[in-house]
Amino acid sequence: MENISFRTTVLPLSDRLFRLALRITMNRAEAEDVVQDTLLKVWEHRNEWEQINNLEAFAIATCRNRALDIVKRAGRKTENLDEMAHFSSQTPHEQLEANEQISLVRRLVDELPEVQRTIMLLRDIEGKTYQEIAEMLDINETQVKVYLHRARTKIKEKLKNGL
Q1: Which of 21, 82, 90, 122 is the right S-S partner for 34, CB 3.0 to 4.6 Å?
Q2: Chain-centre distance for alpha carbon 53
Q3: 34-38, 67-71, 123-127: range with lowest mean pLDDT
Q4: What is the value of pTM for the model shown?
Q5: CA distances from residue 34 to 84, 116, 134, 136, 141 in whole angstroms, order as listed
Q6: What pLDDT digit, counting tens, does each position of 47-67 carry?
Q7: What structural domains and CATH numbers belong to the chain?
């Protein structure tokens, strides 16, 4: 990597890191702390930036690990994906049905094992490639695909069978 700047390369990742940390910790203040810790850790490794293949993957993996440490230390699990979506163009009845479906899918996703849930978040919400996810989680691409397939299959089966 050439000419890496903290301001132009790392700081723009803050929003993405915050969303990931918030999803894991479900606490705004803790998520902000996680992002700050992550940025500090990335800065402390500035002399190694040239040797890091993917600085974004390094930052996201650091953020994820720090957030999981906080959740584990507090002895709690994540409960929701994020705030409920609002659909202003729908009738109240349609909005209620849509919210119930979204709530059901989110609950099913929350029941997945942590690694499957994280991979779904990174792939389906953040739009990461299989290779990027593999680098972030320190697993191979085949494992990413298998975990993602299993997670999606499990959710589809539960939705099809009405839970």
Answers
A1: 21
A2: 21
A3: 123-127
A4: 0.57
A5: 23, 21, 21, 16, 27
A6: 988 888 888 888 988 998 899
A7: 1-79 (1.10.1740), 89-163 (1.10.10.10)
